Give the backbone structure.
Amino acid sequence: MNSRQAQILQALEIPVWQLRSTRAGAGVESAAGEAAEAAQNAEIAAAAASEVQQPAHAQISRGAWTESIDLARLDWDALQSAVSACTRCGLCKSRRQTVFAAGRPGARWMVVGEAPGAEEDQQGEPFVGQAGKLLDNMLRSVGASRERNVLIANVLKCRPPGNRNPEPAEVAACAPYLMRQIELAQPEFLLLLGKFAASSLLHTEGSIASLRGRIHRVDVAGRSIPAVVSYHPAYLLRQPEEKAKAWADLKLAVRTMQP
Ligand code: URA
């Protein structure tokens, strides 16, 4: 194991096992166990190191080791690596890959959607399907884009099979990742699209109709971030007559914080 691999293991709080020299007739079994553990750690570290160097949404398919990671210690790239290896809920079994974010931390606006769909699961980027095209057009209409000044992420980082709704246990398992993303990215404004983004971050079961049209606050790591709730673009594709309300929400967003 090289020193970079050891550093990553340390940051992820995975113990680095040193193989004791095997004395004749004593401790052979525990030495074998340590050797296996050391080999496994080296494999995890190698996978994590290559992921950090080239975060191309490649998966590190490991066991339940992400359970013990202290997310507060991870920077953006390490967080992405942790997400790509996540096994906190059953969605890890059916996902093609995790979908972390589009855009870079530091953007003033952060858009939060629900969960990857089929195309996002395939491409590893949020909002790249039909709903994503609508979102891009809506953002462009107010001078914003994922390429320039908007960071986009979802409540869930893995696709629910058949695009079913996220289950409460999945939202709970994934929530720490979204919170850490917000903490690291430090957006000055949040646009919450759809009921899962709204309920996760505002801790309310209110309908979009009852939550839109006003400024909410989302408290993350000591910062109080203004947030606007609006309809999810997938809903707008099904109910185009609601687009006027989404447009009003966007104007409220721009009045609250220029992108
Ligand atoms: N819907 C979402 O909420 N997020 C995506 O990334 C794609 C569709």
In short: The pocket of uracil is lined by residues 113-117, 120, 126-127, 129, 131-132, 154, 234 (CB under 6 Å). DSSP finds eleven helices and five strands in the chain. The domain at 3-257 is CATH 3.40.470.10 (Uracil-DNA Glycosylase, subunit E). The two ends are 45 Å apart (CA to CA).
